[in-house]
Amino acid sequence: MTTKYSENHEWVSVDGDIGTVGITEHAQEQLGELVFVELPEIGKSLAMGDEAAVIESVKAASEIYAPVSGEITEVNDDLDGAPTRINDDAEGEGWIFKISIADAAELDELMDANEYKKFAAEN
Known about the structure:
Blueprint: E1 2-5, E2 10-15, E3 18-23, H1 25-31, E4 34-38, E5 45-46, E6 51-57, E7 61-65, E8 70-75, H2 84-88, E9 97-101, H3 113-122
Antiparallel strand pairs: 1-2, 2-3, 3-9, 4-6, 5-8, 6-7, 8-9
């Protein structure tokens, strides 16, 4: 399984042609305690960079963007009523949605863990 990171602080963990998407640990730390998550619709088609979901914290609301193009295949219903799951495990059980990857070549435009770590430290 490969995990890649976007400049918008989303991660995508790739297993075959399905990507599991969430926000990074860095992003959730910046946002603080989450109070609401608006999940995308299953079946919705997104282009890379399209707004996919919205999360709200005690500090601000923030859009979640599709790190790759594809169709939403699943959402994390466990976040309904319990958005702090993202605070507890942003890069694990706090995933937000799954997407069928339309163009695997788009993954090459994203950062690996080391590149993201450096990027996050500078931004």
